[in-house]
Amino acid sequence: MEIDAAREVRTTCPYCGVGCGVLAKVAADGQVSVRGDPDHPANFGRLCSKGSALAETIGLDGRLLHPEIHGRRTGWNEALDIVASTFSQTIAEHGSDAVAFYVSGQLLTEDYYLANKLMKGFVGSANIDTNSRLCMASSVAGHRRAFGSDTVPGTYEDLERADLIVLVGSNLAWCHPVLYQRIAAAREKRPEMKIVLVDPRRTMTSDIADMHLAIAPDGDVALFTGLLAWLGQHNALDRAYITAHTSGFGQALFAASALDLTSVATATGLSEDELVRFYSLFAATAKTVTIYSQGVNQSSSGTDKVNAIINCHLATGRIGKPGTGPFSVTGQPNAMGGREVGGMANLLAAHMEIENPEHRDRVRRFWNAPDIAQKPGLKAVEMFQGVADGRIKALWIMATNPVDSMPDADAVEAAIKACPFVVISDVLASTDTVRHAHVRLPAAAWGEKDGSVTNSERRISRQRSFLAAPGEVRPDWWIIAEVARRMGFAEAFAHETPAQIFGEHAALSGFENDGERDFDIGAYAKIDAEGYERLAPFQWPVPSPGGGTTEHLPTRFFANGHFYTADRKARFIAIRATTETRTTADFPLILNTGRIRDHWHTMTRTGKSPRLSQHIAEPFVEIHPVDAQHHGIGDADIVRVSSPRGDVLVRALITPRQRQGCVFAPMHWTDQFAAKGRLDALTAPLIDPVSGQPALKHVAARIEKFAAK
Ligand code: SF4
C-alpha cells in the first residue's frame, strides 16, 4: 500500500491484552515515532514503557525477508507449492489428524480466522491450537462451565467504578500497566476505593493495595471456596438473585462448607485474621470486581480457581451490573480475537462449539465446507506430544516460538527437530524455533500489515500498516489463503483483502443467530474496504445500529440475568479444595515463572530495544532471605536453579517480597539473549484437566550457588 509519511496512523499496540490505541508516524527520514491515541477507549492516550518503545523495536535486523526451503532462498511459488503438496500428501497417506497448526495470540483476527477455517472446515481436523492456551484457556473453560459461553462480562470502566478491586495472581503494574494506571488514577479520585492483592509475591502491584494476601501457591481455590462458605454463614448472600438466575447453589455451598476457617488458613498459608478481614470486606462491598490472570489460569487447578471466583460473584449477585464482576484479563494482544474465531482446538468459529452437532452443521453450511472436523483436536501440550510420538507428521507454526515458551521446552525442541515436515511463518529468521523449520515463510510485522485485534474487554480495534513491507514479506492471511488454494480450496479462500475476511467472519457470527449466541458482529457483515479502513474501536455485543441481526443483544452482558446455558441460568460449580505437594527432598522449593515490566515473552521484539533492556539487564531469581541464607547464597551471586527436567544459571535477587519456600524467575531470557539455559526447560507438561492449560507457576525446584558475584 501507499504510505503517507505526513500522516499519523491509528493502530493498536501489539503487546498485551489491554489493547492500547497507538498513533504512529513515519518522518521524512524514515524515523518512526509513536504516541498513545488520546481517543482510544482502552488507554485514552496512555502508553506503558513497552508501548512507548515500539519505534525502537522496528527495523530489519534479523528479519526473514524471503521464503526459504532447507535454508535455501526461493520464491513464493515454490515455497507455497511445497507446503500445500506436503500437507495434502500427508493427509492423503495418514489422515487429516496427522497434520497440525500451532498458532499465536500475535496473529490478527483475520489470520486466525482463515487458519481455523482451513484446518477445521477443509482439512477436516481440529488440530489447531494456540499459544494463548498458555495464557487464558482456564478462563475460557471456567466461563463456559458457569455461563454456558466464553463471555467476559466486565469492561475497563467497571474497574474505575468498583468500590473494591480484588487482584488475584495478577501483577497488573508490570503485565497490564495501562490498566493499572487507570485503576491508580480512579483511586486518586476516590480514595475510599479498596484494593486487595492476592499473590504469593509482594509485586509492584502491592504498592496500591490496602491488603496483600501472600497466599501459598495454588491456595486460590481454598481462599474463594472458603469465601463462599463465609458468605453463607454471615448472611451475605443475594438469595433472590441465586433463586432467579442460577442453578447448583446448594451443591456448591455444601462442597464449600467442608472447609472451616482453620482449614482455609492451612491451605492458603494465610492467618485466620487475614481471612476474616478479607472476607468481611468482600461481604460488605456490593461493587466488587475480581481481576485475575496468569496466577489463576496457569495452574493444574486453573479452571476450578476461575469457577471458585465466579461462584462468589454469583452468590452475591455481583455480575451484570456496573462496577462488578469477575474479570479475566488476557495476556496476548489478540487472545480474545482467537477465542472469537475458534482458534483453539476445542472451539469453532464465532464462539460455536465443536462438540455441538447443530453448530458444526451451521458452520459447515456457511463455509460450504467439505469436511468439517467432528471432534476437538490436540491442545498445545498434547499437540507437541503428538509431534514427539509421531502422530503429527506435518506441523505449521505461525508467529510463535514454542521451543522457548512451551513447558518442558527441551522435549518440545526435540519433537520439532524430529518432525518430518515443519513450516514456520514468522517475521524473524533465527528464533530457536525458526531454525528447525524445513520451510520458512516471511511474514509481515507490526506496522506492515492490516487487520483487527480484540482486547480483554471485548473491544475490537484495527491494526493498520504505516510501513512499506520489506523484501518479499506477506501478511499471514495471504500466506494461509495461498496454501489453501493450492490444496484445492480456491473458491473458499478467494479473499483478496483483510476487509473481506473480517466481513465473512462478521457474517458467520450473525448467521442464523436466534439469540442463542453471545458473540455477534453481524452488523459488519457487509463492511467494505472504506468502512474497514475507517473502523473505530468498538465492543461486542454491538448495540443495534438501526436494524439487522443485533437487536436482541444486550449492551451489558448478564444485566438481564440471562446466561447462555440451556435454562438461561448461571451454573455454580461445586468445588472441593485439594492441596498438592510437588516438592520433594531433592527439589524442596516451588518455582513460580512469570514476566517483568519491560520485556515481552521470549524477547524477540523487546530484546531489540536498549532502553527496555536497561530496566532489568539479565535473568534473575528472587529468593527469600531465609532461603538464601539456608543455601549459602548472597545477593547477586550466580545461582543454578534446577528442576527434574533441567537447569539455568541466573543472578540471585534476595528480597523479602518473595514468599519463603518459593522462588520466582522471569521466563523471557533464552540462550539467544545471553542467558545460560531457558527457563521453560525446567517447567513440566502438567496441565489443568479441564482447560489443558499448563501449570507454569508451580514447579518443584532447587537452588545452589554456582559462583560468587
Ligand atoms: Fe501495549 Fe499493554 Fe502497554 Fe498498552 S499496556 S501500551 S497494550 S503493552
From TrEMBL:
**Keywords for this protein:** 4Fe-4S, Iron, Iron-sulfur, Metal-binding, Molybdenum, Nitrate assimilation, Oxidoreductase
* UniProt record similarity statement: Belongs to the prokaryotic molybdopterin-containing oxidoreductase family. NasA/NapA/NarB subfamily.
Q: Which organism is it from?
A: Mesorhizobium japonicum R7A
Please give the superkingdom of this protein's source: Bacteria
Organism lineage reads as: Bacteria, Pseudomonadati, Pseudomonadota, Alphaproteobacteria, Hyphomicrobiales
Any keyword rRNA processing? no
Q: Which cofactors, by name?
A: [4Fe-4S] cluster; Mo-bis(molybdopterin guanine dinucleotide)
Keyword Oxidoreductase present in the record's keywords: the answer is yes
* All residue ranges annotated as the 4Fe-4S Mo/W bis-MGD-type domain in the record: 6-62
| Name of protein | Molybdopterin-dependent oxidoreductase
